[in-house]
Amino acid sequence: MKIDLTGRTALVTGATGELGRVMALTLAGCGADLALHYRSNESKAAELTAAVEALGRRAVAVQADVTKQDSVLGMKKEIADRLGAVDIVVANAVVQYQWTSVLEQAPEDYASQFESCVMQSVYLAKAFIPDMIAKKHGRFIGINTECSMQNFPTQSAYVAGKRGMDGVYRVLAKEVGEHQITVNQVAPGWTISERDRENGTERSEAYESAVPLKRRGTDQEIANVVAFLASGLSSFITGAYIPVSGGNVMPSI
């Protein structure tokens, strides 16, 4: 048994980010062709495109503002023209901002999180799910966060956006399931990325002490779950919020 995405085309938004790069390369390593979305880092997108092509897969870098419907539709057209229909969507992009208390957080930060978590997902669904319905197959995967279950101080804008996103995914899973399209969320914990390895910041005793597995997860461990959900091995899983956090958060029944 192995993850085989041969013949599939995947879109990863925020593909030039720390997690996005690893997810894209992992999907390519499983045989998928890649549409690599970026907002502004064109040079990093070009490097990633070359890395995917070096794995023997087709790849295109596509620029878009995923908080704007017209931009997402333009991205969809460019991908269709260059790669064909998308089988797998990974909604990973999110606006970055400075976290602070509810009383001090700027109102526009809440708006940015709503736009990049909720509306990105809505626009991606409107753009790409109709082709999945036509093929009676599709994988729609959102990157959520363990913070959605933690609700710690200073997380309010991020949590608000991600919890809103969660609602969209749960409803969407019920709406498109009859077409054999699965809709799921991966919720990373505080993850070790390439930046941590370069800066020597992989360890945090305070955080690790609360994690049952007593360590932080890695970007590759997140990407592995995304690849599983993108594959036929996950064909009867939909509507799920799956923490990849070493047990740091545990959804209850």
Automatic annotation (TrEMBL):
<protein>
    <submittedName>
        <fullName>SDR family oxidoreductase</fullName>
    </submittedName>
</protein>
<dbReference type="Pfam" id="PF13561">
    <property type="entry name" value="adh_short_C2"/>
</dbReference>
<feature type="transmembrane region" description="Helical">
    <location>
        <begin position="222"/>
        <end position="242"/>
    </location>
</feature>
<keyword id="KW-0472">Membrane</keyword>
<comment type="similarity">
    <text>Belongs to the short-chain dehydrogenases/reductases (SDR) family.</text>
</comment>
<keyword id="KW-0812">Transmembrane</keyword>
<dbReference type="InterPro" id="IPR002347">
    <property type="entry name" value="SDR_fam"/>
</dbReference>
<dbReference type="GO" id="GO:0016491">
    <property type="term" value="F:oxidoreductase activity"/>
</dbReference>
<keyword id="KW-0560">Oxidoreductase</keyword>
<dbReference type="InterPro" id="IPR036291">
    <property type="entry name" value="NAD(P)-bd_dom_sf"/>
</dbReference>
<dbReference type="GO" id="GO:0008206">
    <property type="term" value="P:bile acid metabolic process"/>
</dbReference>
<keyword id="KW-1133">Transmembrane helix</keyword>
